[in-house]
Write a structure and sequence with these properties.
CATH superfamily: Alpha/Beta hydrolase fold, catalytic domain
Radius of gyration: 20 Å
Distance between the termini: 8 Å
CATH architecture: 3-Layer(aba) Sandwich
Keywords: Hydrolase
Family: Belongs to the AB hydrolase superfamily. AB hydrolase 4 family.
Largest sheet: 8 strands, mixed
Strand order of the largest sheet: 1-2-4-3-5-6-7-8
Structural class: alpha/beta
Protein name: Alpha/beta hydrolase
Pfam family, one: Hydrolase_4
InterPro entries: AB_hydrolase_4_sf (IPR050960), AB_hydrolase_fold (IPR029058), Hydrolase_4 (IPR022742)
Oligomer: single chain
Order of helices and strands: HHEEEHEHEHEHHHHHHEHEEEH
Shape: globular
Number of domains: 1
Helix content: 25-40%
Number of helices: 13
Number of strands: 10
């Protein structure tokens, strides 16, 4: 069962043996689909997990620092076969503790993949081991991780007595997919396949979406998580940053009151951009893929049209542009009418997890 270029969504799902997505009660509508993992959890099998620390350099804008990112390797219990190693990345304000990520990891392990669950710079599990925070383009962190993942795959090849080298895949949830896309555009050989689920391709468009009045509570929740992670940095926060992050006692306001202003005061300068406009322009995969003709490994984009956070318009435009590119055979798109932001909670569990597992399995036959 190979994955063919330019397949329609229905043909691709049929090829994978998966039915089109349908919401299940009571998770009806974009917001309940998005929030389901906040309200409910799933019983998951115990994971055979081990901690791995990956050395990363300091941020360019800091004279000293650097340290380790913390990842967790989950292995399938079967010693007879292994289908690949999947580097799994969380989204904005998240970590490897998020329910959606742990459930996807479990689904992949059940399909005989090993899963390397990475905590990005600044997330809680690695807060004490590295300074700063991550960005949509943090290649100086991701490229060492991807190289380490390849080394782990060679060891797994020996451990599972595989006759061929075990492939290395990537799966990114929301901003995690954006980060993986930017890393792979530096070197498409870093991964043998990639899935991006509800991932922002145009950061300015995405920021405008989260700023809509309907998303006030979402933005406040995300912003509070980002501010907390930043202020809890044991390596310290610059006075300029602290003044922007904390509420001013005099006017009882703070300079950072939305995701865009957080990126302008914190993310952009930390990663060497002059302001949020330059950051959004240069770290948005859409523009690099279209204007600079960057190549990717075989990539699947999964996006819901009712996503309250990430508009699907950029992914739709990217699909249309790629129809005329030399790289069209490597990229596929699945758009659903419903599903929210990384929701896809269907009648047989999480439909998105099933698509990711089946699609990555299909790459083995190409």
């Amino acid at each position: 069962m190979g994955v063919k270029g330019n397949l329609k969504k229905e043909d691709l799902l049929s090829d994978l043996g998966i039915s089109p997505f349908k919401e299940r009660l009571p998770w009806i509508g974009p917001d309940l689909q998005t929030l389901r993992d906040t309200f409910a959890s799933d019983e998951l099998p115990d994971a055979y997990s081990s901690e791995i620390r990956i050395k990363v350099p300091p941020l360019k804008t800091r004279k000293a620092g650097g340290g380790f990112l913390v990842a967790y390797l989950d292995k399938p219990s079967s010693v007879s076969s292994i289908n690949g190693l999947v580097l799994l990345l969380h989204g904005l304000g998240g970590s490897t503790r998020r329910r959606g990520l742990t459930r996807m990891a479990s689904a992949l392990v059940q399909s005989n993949f090993a899963v390397l669950k990475l905590n990005l710079r600044g997330s809680d599990p690695c807060r004490d081991f590295v300074d700063g925070t991550y960005a949509a383009e943090c290649n100086s962190d991701l490229i060492p991780v991807l190289r380490r993942a390849r080394e782990i795959s060679y060891q797994l090849t020996e451990d599972y007595q595989s006759s061929k080298n075990i492939p290395v895949f990537g799966a990114g949830i929301s901003l995690g997919g954006t980060i993986l896309l930017n890393a792979c555009m530096c070197d498409e050989s870093l991964l043998d396949g990639l899935v991006c689920i509800s991932s922002p391709l145009d950061l300015n468009e995405c920021s405008s979406s989260i700023e809509r009045p309907r998303n006030f509570i979402y933005q406040k929740w995300l912003l509070n998580r980002l501010i907390r992670q930043t202020l809890e940095d044991p390596f310290g926060v610059e006075e300029r940053e602290k003044n922007a992050l904390l509420i001013n006692r005099k006017d009882k306001e703070r300079k950072i009151n939305d995701i865009r202003s957080f990126d302008n005061f914190i993310t952009a300068p930390r990663w060497g951009y002059k302001d949020v406009g330059e950051y959004y322009a240069k770290a948005s995969p859409f523009f690099s893929l279209i204007e600079n003709k960057k190549s990717l490994p075989k990539t699947l984009f999964i996006q819901s049209k009712d996503d309250p956070w990430v508009p699907f318009l950029a992914a739709e435009k990217l699909m249309e542009k790629m129809k005329f590119s030399n790289n069209q055979m490597a990229n596929q798109f699945i758009f659903t009418e419903k599903g929210g932001h990384n929701g896809f909670h269907g009648v047989k569990g999480c439909w998105g997890d099933q698509v990711v597992s089946k699609w990555l399995l299909s790459l083995k036959t190409i």
